[in-house]
Design brief:
Elements lengths: L5 E3 L9 E6 L2 E3 L7 E2 L1 E5 L2 E6 L1 H7 L2 E6 L4 E4 L1 E6 L1 H7 L3 E2 L6 H14 L5 E6 L13 H6 L5 E5 L4 E4 L1 H6 L11 E6 L2 E8 H7 L7 H17 L2 E9 L2 H11 L6 E7 L2 H10 L2 E2 L3 E9 L29 H14 L2 E6 L2 H15 L8 E4 L9 H5 L3 E3 L2 H7 L3 H10 L5 H8 L15 H10 L19 H7 L2 H5 L18 E4 L16 E6 L2 E5 L2
Parallel strand pairs: 2-7, 3-8, 9-16, 10-11, 11-12, 16-17, 17-19, 19-20, 20-21, 21-22
Antiparallel strand pairs: 1-7, 2-5, 3-4, 5-6, 8-23, 12-13, 13-15, 14-15, 18-19, 23-24, 24-25
Helix pairs in contact: 2-7, 10-11, 13-16, 16-17
Length: about 550
C-alpha cells in the first residue's frame, strides 16, 4: 500500500459520520497513562474517538482515510518558548548563524547588500564563541564598507549586537555613554560598535517599521518552516499589543493556521491594553501572559551572576531593570490574574525573580508563572520552583550549544546546577520544553534529542553533557506536547491525542520513541495536520 495513502471513502453522502480516519498507525496519545493506539477519528476539527483499526472502521465512515503505513503518529509538537515573528523577520535579513569568522560575516553582509540595495542592513546570528578568536568584533570593516548606510547585526542570542558608525550616529550614541541594564562598549575613547542588552534597543528603535507585506511574509514564512518541522503551536515570547490584531486578521483570512500563544512585552502600553480588554482567546490565538527580562545572556556576558564570571574578573553581568520594577509588575499581574513569564539566565537573576514570585504567590498555587531559561541556579534556590509551583521553561538545545564554552564562563562548581533539567522536572513533576528559535534551530526533534541524549548533532560528547540531567523519552515527548500545552493553560484542548481535543498531529518517518539516539537528528516529518487539515507534506 502506498505510503500515507489518502483515500476517499466510497459511500453515500448521508452515510458519513466523520471527516477523517487515521489508521494503521502507532498512535502515541500522550494521555495520562501514555497509552498507544492504532487509529483515531476526526470530526469538525476535533478528535472524537481513539482506538484500534477494526473497531473504529466498523463504527465510523469518514470522508477521508489516512493510512499511516505502520508509522508513528504524535500530537502536534508545541514550542513553549520561541520568537516566532522575530524568526520570520530574520528569514528576510542577513543570515549569520553558524558562520565561523568575523571576516566571513562581513562577506555575507556585502553579498546581502548587493542584492538589497536600500535601507538598513539588518542581520542576526553571529556568535564569537565559534570563531578562531573568541572576542567581540570591531565595527571598522563595516564602517569602511558602509560609511553612510546603517548596519545592525544582532548576536545569536538577541542580547548583543554590533552597529556601524552610521547606525550609531542615527541613534546619537557617543563614546563613553552609559545605560542602565546595558553596555555601550568604548575602548580607548572610541566606540567599537558593540552593544549589549538595553543598549541594543537604542539603535533598534531607530529602524523603520517593516511594511505590511514584510510583516505578512514574516508570519507566513515562519509558519511554513514550523509546519515542516511538525510544530502546530508556538509560544511567541514578547510582542507589542499592536501585533495582536495583525495575527488575528491573518488567522481570520485563513492564511495563518498555526496556533500562537503570545506573551506581551514588558511595556506600559501593553499592560494598559490587556488590563482594559482582558485576555484574548480564540482557537488559534491566546493572549494572557506578559514577558519580563531579568538579565541578558551568558554568551554576551549579560547574564547576572552571584559571583564574577570565571573569564572576566570583577564582572557579574547586570539586571535589565530594577528589583522594584520586577516587584511592581508581579504585584499588578497577580492582582489582575495574568500569567507572568520572566527571562532569567544567571543565578543572581534567577534568585531575584524567584524571591519576587514567592513574595506575591505566597505558597502553592495554579498561576503557572514561569521562569524562562533558568540556566544557572544556585543549589539553594531550586526549592522555590516546587514550593511556589513556579514553572521552569527550558530549552534543551541551549545546553548542547553552550556546553563547549560554558565552563570557561562560570567554572565547574556552578556548572553542577546549570541546565539542570532533571532536577527542575522533579520540582513540579512536569517541564515545558522549547527552543528559543531563532536563537536555536526550530526543529522540536532536536529539542527531544538534546533532552534525552544531551549531545549535539555530531554526537558529542560520547557520554552526553551532564547525563544525570537527561530526560527520559516519555518525559521529553511530554515536554514538547502536553506539558508545553499545560504551560499555557491549554492542556484540555491540545497536547495529546484524546477525544475532545483539536486534531493537531504529526507523522514522522521514524519512531523517535524506539530508534537509536544517534538516529534522532535525521528523523523527518512526513505530514503535519491542524484541525484534521493537512498543512504540510514532505515532497
Amino acid at each position: 500500500m502506498p505510503l500515507l495513502l489518502l483515500l476517499a471513502v466510497a459511500c453515500k453522502q448521508q452515510d458519513y459520520n466523520a471527516d477523517l480516519l487515521v489508521k494503521n498507525a502507532i498512535v502515541y496519545t500522550v494521555n495520562n497513562s501514555f497509552s498507544t493506539a492504532e487509529a483515531f477519528v476526526v470530526k469538525g476539527g476535533k478528535i472524537i474517538a481513539v482506538g484500534n483499526d477494526d473497531s473504529l472502521e466498523n463504527i465510523y465512515k469518514a470522508h477521508y482515510v489516512v493510512d499511516a503505513g505502520g508509522r508513528a503518529v504524535y500530537p502536534g509538537f508545541i514550542d513553549a518558548h520561541s520568537h516566532f515573528y522575530g524568526y520570520g523577520l530574520s528569514l528576510q535579513q542577513v543570515a549569520l548563524k553558524g558562520i565561523k569568522s568575523w571576516s566571513a560575516i562581513v562577506d555575507s553582509v556585502k553579498a546581502f547588500s548587493a542584492r538589497n540595495t536600500e535601507g538598513w542592513i539588518i542581520g542576526r546570528g553571529w556568535d564569537q564563541n565559534i570563531w578562531p578568536v573568541k572576542q567581540f568584533p570591531n565595527k571598522a570593516k563595516l564602517d569602511s564598507l558602509f560609511p553612510v548606510r546603517p548596519v545592525l547585526l544582532i548576536r545569536v542570542d538577541g542580547h548583543g549586537a554590533i552597529a556601524n558608525q552610521a547606525a550609531l550616529n542615527i541613534a546619537d550614541i557617543k563614546p563613553g555613554q552609559t545605560i542602565s541594564g546595558g553596555e555601550i562598549e568604548t575602548i580607548k575613547g572610541k566606540l567599537t560598535g558593540i552593544l549589549v542588552d538595553n543598549a541594543v534597543g537604542i539603535v533598534r528603535r531607530k529602524i523603520p517599521e517593516p511594511s505590511d507585506d514584510v510583516i505578512q511574509s514574516a508570519f507566513l514564512d515562519a509558519q511554513y518552516n514550523c509546519f515542516a518541522d511538525g510544530l502546530t503551536t508556538v509560544a511567541d515570547c514578547g510582542l507589542p499589543h499592536t501585533m495582536i490584531n495583525t495575527i488575528a486578521q491573518l488567522q481570520h483570512k485563513g492564511a495563518l493556521k498555526i496556533r500562537l500563544y503570545v506573551m506581551l512585552s514588558d511595556r506600559q502600553e501593553n499592560y494598559e491594553y490587556l488590563f482594559k480588554r482582558g485576555a484574548f482567546k480564540t482557537p488559534g490565538l491566546d493572549v494572557r501572559a506578559f514577558k519580563m527580562y531579568a538579565d541578558g545572556a551568558l554568551g554576551s556576558r549579560g547574564a547576572c551572576l552571584l559571583q564574577p564570571y570565571s573569564d572576566q574578573k570583577n564582572w557579574n553581568g547586570f539586571l535589565l531593570s530594577s528589583q522594584q520594577h520586577f516587584q511592581e509588575i508581579a504585584q499588578k499581574l497577580v492582582d489582575k490574574g495574568f500569567q507572568l513569564c520572566t527571562h532569567a539566565i544567571g543565578d543572581s537573576a534567577n534568585r531575584v525573580i524567584l524571591k519576587v514570585y514567592a513574595s506575591v504567590l505566597k505558597g502553592k498555587n495554579d498561576r503557572r508563572w514561569r521562569i524562562e531559561h533558568c540556566q544557572i541556579l544556585s543549589p539553594d534556590d531550586i526549592h522555590y520552583f516546587g514550593d511556589y509551583n513556579i514553572i521552569p521553561s527550558v530549552q534543551p538545545t541551549h545546553a548542547t550549544s553552550d556546553m563547549r564554552w560554558v565552563i570557561t564562563r562560570i567554572g565547574s562548581k556552578r556548572l553542577k546546577t546549570a541546565y539542570a533539567y532533571k532536577q527542575l522536572l522533579e520540582q513540579n513533576g512536569w517541564l515545558p520544553l522549547g527552543t528559543d528559535f531563532p536563537v536555536e534551530n526550530i526543529n522540536p526533534i532536536y529539542t527531544f534529542y538534546a533532552a534525552v541524549e544531551r549531545k549535539d548533532l555530531k554526537g558529542y560528547p560520547e557520554g552526553g553533557f551532564q547525563p544525570e540531567n537527561a530526560l527520559s523519552r516519555v518525559e521529553a515527548l511530554r515536554g514538547i506536547t502536553i506539558w508545553a500545552a499545560k504551560a499555557q493553560f491549554e492542556e484540555n484542548e491540545k497536547g495529546s491525542i484524546e477525544p475532545g481535543k483539536y486534531a493537531d498531529f504529526v507523522i514522522l518517518d521514524k519512531d523517535i520513541m524506539k530508534i537509536k539516539g544517534s538516529e534522532m537528528p535525521g528523523v523527518k516529518v512526513l505530514q503535519t495536520y491542524i484541525n484534521g487539515e493537512k498543512v504540510y507534506e514532505k515532497k
